[in-house]
Amino acid sequence: MMTLPGLALFYGGLVRVKNVLSVLMQCFAITCAVSIIWLIGGYSLAFAEGSAWLGGLQKAMFSGIGRESMSGDIPEILFALFQLTFAVITPALIVGGFAERIKFSGMLIFCVAWSLVVYSPVTHWVWGGGWLGEMGLLDFAGGTVVHITAGVAALVAAIYLGPRDGFTKVPMPPHNMTMTVTGAGLLWVGWFGFNGGSALAANGDAAMAMLVTHISASMGALTWMTLEWWKFGKPSALGIVTGMVAGLGTITPASGFVGPGGALIIGLLAGITCFYATLYIKKVLKIDDSLDVFPVRGVGGILGTFLAGIFASTELGVFSGFGFADGISSMLGQVKVQLIGIVATFVYTAITTYVLLRIVDAVVGLRVEKEGEYEGLDLALHDERGYDL
Questions:
Q1: For the domain that residue 148 is a member of, what is the CATH number?
Q2: Is residue 187 part of a domain?
Q3: Is pLDDT of 28 > 50?
């Protein structure tokens, strides 16, 4: 639900009418391709026993995983299938960074390679028995694994490909906000499975994760809407759904560790921080991260991973979910671990993404020709149109 149709509709409505099918096609193709890669070796590299940096290949093609195999208290095949949903959506998120100007072939090759050399290793670091997990990094559902990796990769890709033709000079409004709001609603519901499901059980931990997810999303949406209303005079549908996504992305790493009070503050800070990060990226740095992947998801992931160290608490009451309850020294120690996780994930993702972009660009090329960009990727790359009314 989160990737198809949620993210596809959310992104599809945000681009111009001549590129809507290209975005839907990218999300669909990534879902299919990464699913196969996950079976062949991605899952094994992420979760099989190996070094502190990477899993082995003993579970390639799901070798040894049968109907009776268990991962903790649940069947391992169910665990592998659940983790596949994370593996699928993470490279799909990157699509928003280079939307409306990338070749389909280059995009597909890059995303498949990225899932193997960035996503699987970082997943192993955090959730597969790797070095960050051993350090005690708190990332319940993907602040580092999903949002920082995707956000940083989108930023690097946006800088590498350069801005769309006419960026800052020609208006590029969303072509279908109805589609975007529909996708946002599907993302919101899907996020309950994303965060709540990470408890790997139907219990109080899952219920609390779902509750704090909803609180943060609601607060993030209202905060962004209020800031936009104050700064520009009118609230917008685009603003409220973007604030919702900021709240969801920021609570993700902390969702299993904080209470409703912590979630309220995390959502508030998400709305404020991501709102101004978006303005700064576009207005000051002039970086054409087409659909604001880094300032919303990347910055949200960084902020949420950091705040998990502050607000995590063994006491999860209405307003007791603050890390101060467990002692300042404990909180500071956890914040140090969180910062190490943020920096390591950021640096590794940035360097590896850049190298992959250079390689793929040299082999098949990444950017469409100027004529194709002007015509629109739907016709130029797929010989189709999104609407024929």
A1: 1.10.3430.10
A2: yes
A3: yes
